Automatic annotation (TrEMBL):
TM region(s), chain numbering: 28-49
Superkingdom per UniProt: Bacteria
Name of the protein described by the UniProt record: Metallopeptidase
Localization annotation: Membrane
Membrane topology: Single-pass membrane protein
Keyword Kinase included in the entry's annotation: no
Native source organism of the sequence: Deinococcus aetherius
Pfam family, one: Zn_peptidase
PANTHER family referenced in this protein's UniProt entry, alphabetically: INNER MEMBRANE PROTEIN (PTHR30168:SF0), PUTATIVE MEMBRANE PROTEIN YPFJ (PTHR30168)
Protein keywords: Membrane, Transmembrane, Transmembrane helix
Length: 289
């Protein structure tokens, strides 16, 4: 990792469950959201892989290499990095919830390699980071960070942090009951395009929540303009329009599920510049999407 932001200054204790080196369970499938969902498109785009194979549905799980577990206090740098980022999101959101008279339940982050089983089903690391609302856990294969450097045009510690904070943003939505409301609205949608529109708003709000976290830790982590630019580059690279244009040469707006590059950057910066989660109402009638 490129050490730009001072992530070592952030509080740890982020509830990490280290499953790296563990085997997967054959079969199953998973419905994913957040940044990770777009990696399916990336895999198809760059490697010609059938997305249905990525999401499971039969066959044997990939074989993982055994990883030597380290003793407490001797975790590798990736573990320490994720622990500090997740720990700082817990601190930020616990404080925000407390100010609103609510209680925040910290999520768990599961580190895995190649394949993992969650309460939402089985997923390959090719899916990318994702949040499962059924077990309140974020799932992450840290090799995704190298994929960001190679394929998403964005790297650096704050860009990696943005990905984690985005998935935590989905946990915040789950805590607030927003995810359930969106699911009900999608079930009542009159068309696939309308249902996709709710998904876009949910993802953009998670981007905004990630920006709120970045605002709250900016001084402690000594964030620089270059750090922020790295996160913006990542948000730009994972816009639906950018991915579709690169993958198929044209854009189908009704199929968007995460938002355009411009939307993702704008909502991340809305959260980052103001640090106010109340400004992250992507479902408001006057919101410019």
């Amino acid at each position: 990792m490129t050490l730009t932001m001072d992530w070592q200054n952030l509080p740890g204790g982020g509830n990490i469950e280290d499953r790296r080196g563990g085997g997967g369970i054959p079969g199953g499938g998973i419905a994913v959201g957040g940044v990770g969902g777009l990696i399916i498109a990336l895999i198809a785009m760059f490697f010609g892989v059938d997305p249905s194979a990525i999401l499971g549905g039969g066959g044997s799980a990939p074989t993982t290499q055994t990883r030597t577990q380290t003793a407490p206090g001797e975790q590798d740098q990736a573990y320490q990095f994720v622990d500090r980022i997740l720990g700082s999101t817990n601190t930020v959101w616990s404080g925000i919830f407390q100010q609103a008279g609510r209680t925040y339940t910290d999520p768990t982050l599961v580190l895995f390699s190649n394949v993992v089983q969650s309460a939402c089903g089985q997923a390959s690391s090719a899916v990318g980071p994702f949040y499962c609302p059924l077990d309140n856990k974020v799932y992450l294969d840290t090799s995704f960070f190298a994929q960001m450097d190679r394929r998403l045009g964005g790297g650096g510690d704050f860009a990696y942090s943005y990905v984690i904070a985005h998935e935590v943003g989905h946990h915040v939505q789950n805590e607030l009951g927003i995810s359930d409301q969106v699911e009900r609205a999608q079930q009542q949608a009159r068309s696939e395009a309308e249902a996709n529109g709710y998904s876009v708003r949910l993802e953009l709000q998670a981007d905004c929540f990630a920006g709120v976290w970045g605002n709250k830790v900016s001084s402690l982590a000594n964030l620089t303009e270059a750090d922020v630019r790295g996160a913006i580059n990542t948000a730009t690279a994972i816009g639906d329009d950018t991915l579709q244009r690169q993958g198929q040469g044209y854009v189908v707006p009704d199929s968007f599920t995460h938002g355009t590059s411009e939307q993702r950057v704008r909502w991340f910066m809305t959260g980052f510049q103001g640090g106010d989660p109340n400004k992250c109402d992507t479902f408001g009638q006057n919101v410019r999407l």
